[in-house]
Amino acid sequence: MPHALIVDDEPDVVGWMSEVVQAEGYTVATADSLRNARAQLVRQTPDVLLTDLQLPDGRGTDLVRDLESPAQTEVVVITGHASVDSAIEAVRIGASDYLIKPVDVERLRAILRRQPQTTELKSEIGELREELRRVGRFGHMFGDSPPMQSLYDKLSRVAPTAATVLLTGESGTGKELAARTIHDLSRRKKFPFLAINCGAISPNLIESELFGHARGSFTGADREHRGFFEQAKGGTVFLDEVTEMPLDLQVKLLRVLETGTFTRVGTTEPIASDVRIIAATNRSPERAVSEGKFREDLYHRLNVFPITLPPLRERGTDIEMLAQQFLRELNRTEGTHKTFSADALARLYEMTWPGNVRELKNYVQRAYILADNVVEGGEPTQSAPIAAEDQSGLIVVRVGTPLEEVERRVTMATLEQCGGVKRTAARILGISLKTLYNRLEAYAEKDRQREAEATGPMPLVEDHEIAAAGEREGRGPARKH
Fold first, then answer.
1. At 349, is the secondary structure helix, strand, or coil?
2. pLDDT tens-digit profile of 380-414?
3. Whose CA, among 210, 315, 377, 471, lies 20 to 30 Å from 146?
4. What pTM was estimated for this model as a whole?
5. Domain 120-308 - what CATH class?
6. Quick check: 319 pLDDT over 90?
7. Distances from the Cα of 298 to the Cα of 34, 294, 352, angstroms
């Protein structure tokens, strides 16, 4: 039977927490000070240590040093004052989670129910280390260069904790793969991992996507909708391009981080949030703060454990390892046995890869298509996204092309180059975000009219589908009928 030690100098808190912990199948010991807690540790090493941060004779975190086998005990810190400093301290001393007074009973139960042994997680990390040594893979990521080894160390350290993580790095470096690796090495791995791109969803829809909405809360809300924070209960929510989130929504996200609750659109009833947040951005969050586009208080809340992913150009021989891996995947899918020539591998190191791993994957796919049996180093490079910036972002337009079509092609090409982040594309184009959405809707409407003329009436679709349709149609020349 698992054993828990509860350390707190408030008798009422100790009393009700003991009842909750016992109901979850634990034996319980209690203490009201560091001295009494140390005496309990001598009698029996707990599987779970629930300790108040502030005790009459010191700090509860000091007990971690007294554990005979720290790897065998889950440490949950309880604090009456939620702050970034207390969260960071809890992570540094190896806490798996922390609770804010008054402690939410359901959150406490969720922690107790999802607790696998730390030794189990350490064993999994050890297995990943062995796989890294054999095939250069760690979780969802490939590469064994020194920068990646350092990255894996950070992922391994933060994954078993409850810390909020902020991933930064250039586009295409694998931030979502890093987030998935953190989730898979955490105590939340048996629960959902949900990712949302904060810059690719209409500002009118993103709040509903995150927090859900009540029936009738706005036009078209014909049923109750559970947002990501409810769907991912017990798991992880990955907020990609978080600096592109509208400012009014940043305030609501900050409230979730501070109170552990959220409300659906159209309601006032708070709902407890039991998710871990991992955020990511490919731009400097500090610059976004200085430009007034990202709240400083939210930045500090998310930046509890920052991790920067290295660009591909700094990863040395990982470039060749990744290229070979992508080629193996293509050979396996297509039933072929194509290989790189020595010249082709040498050419890999001549490019600076501004699009990073995503660009390399596209390069390999193009090279694979052009090759018969051996991928040579000349022709595929000409078809790949060239590193030189002056050769990118070009659009060829015939003389006499209608201005409306020119505008469409420039708009959609800019949006694609920005990775679908509409806020960034609007800024580059020198138009408002609302104008960009209006353009996308107009493009989609015109396409529907063309299709209706050829195939008959089309069914109505939602606003977000209209935007998605506009993006899909805008990536190439306009369709001819």
1. coil
2. 343 333 333 333 456 666 666 788 888 888 888 88
3. 377
4. 0.62
5. alpha beta
6. yes
7. 34, 8, 34
